[in-house]
Design a protein that fits this description.
- The protein has 272 residues and is α/β, with parallel strands linked by helices.
- It has a single domain, classed as P-loop containing nucleotide triphosphate hydrolases (Rossmann fold, 3-Layer(aba) Sandwich).
- Helix content is 36%, strand content 25%.
- It has 10 helices and 10 strands.
- The strands form 2 sheets. Strands 6-7-8-3-9-10 form a 6-stranded mixed beta sheet, sandwiched between helices. A 4-stranded antiparallel beta sheet has the order 2-1-4-5.
- The longest helix is centred in the C-terminal third of the chain and has 18 residues.
- Bound molecules: adenosine-5'-triphosphate (ATP) and magnesium ion.
- Adenosine-5'-triphosphate binds next to strand 1, strand 2 and helix 1.
- Magnesium ion (MG) binds next to helix 1.
Length: 272
Amino acid sequence: MLKVKKLYKQYIKKDRKGKKTIINAVDSVSFNLEENKSYSLVGESGSGKSTLARLITYIEKPTKGKIEINDEDLSKMSKKILRMKRADFQMVMQDGQSSLDPRIKIYDSIAEPLRNFKKLHKNEEKSRVEELMKKVELPLELLDRRPYELSGGQQKRVCIARAISVDPKFIVFDEAVSGLDVTVRKKVLDLLLKLRKELKSSYLFITHDIDVAMYMSNNISIMKSGRIVEEIQDVKSFNDFKHAYSKMLIKSLPPKKPCREFRRKDVNKQIL
Ligand SMILES: Nc1ncnc2c1ncn2[C@@H]1O[C@H](COP(=O)(O)OP(=O)(O)OP(=O)(O)O)[C@@H](O)[C@H]1O
Ligand SMILES: [Mg+2]
């Protein structure tokens, strides 16, 4: 469904003396994400994950390379078509707090994508917003609050509700659970797995944590300095990773985490 072919993104930075430096944020990245599947992308800070997410959701244009959705080249689509397709491609941004407008009440935050992409009557909109709050397991009384009156975990859930509001075919989660404590993190991950089963959508799950990646997907790519250094299909254990950098990421994991304890026990593998 989504095919990324030899994608590049270069940033050119000038220092105070006018000297230019080229940053290869994404460097010849290729991968495929099939319909109704989850794909995880793992890498340390600065490895190019968020840049890649912005390219795939067409927030930014690649320097070179192709992104195809159902064999259609994104760069060849007109602005109008791209706008229509945007509803199918949602992203939950890295920073929950800054991706929610602090002046806007939670109700309007969730209703915003509905207003942009689905023309609903006021009462239909209200019942859809309430239904979404239930889906992400938030109490309705939060609808009248502003983002800063919510916890980090609640803010993430609001971002998830916004993303799923327009029934997307594909959702990019950029560090969806970073900054949350381990128990909240586990709850949000389980919510995402449950929602994916219900929505039948595909996930691109971006994380710096290989453990979280394995919890979320069977197919995992490891990114380093803008490049995919290793791609493993149908991962079963840490032993499947062969690249020295992947092994280093595994070695640097804390000894025990709740995610690993719960791995696969409560997850139907078919849905990953
Ligand atoms: N708009 C930009 N202009 C210049 N350089 C950028 C820009 N965005 C990202 N970069 C650079 O590109 C590289 C990749 O950044 P990116 O944010 O994609 O990494 P990341 O893997 O998401 O990191 P993190 O885990 O910290 O979020 C970094 O060196 C970063 O400084
Ligand atoms: Mg990032």
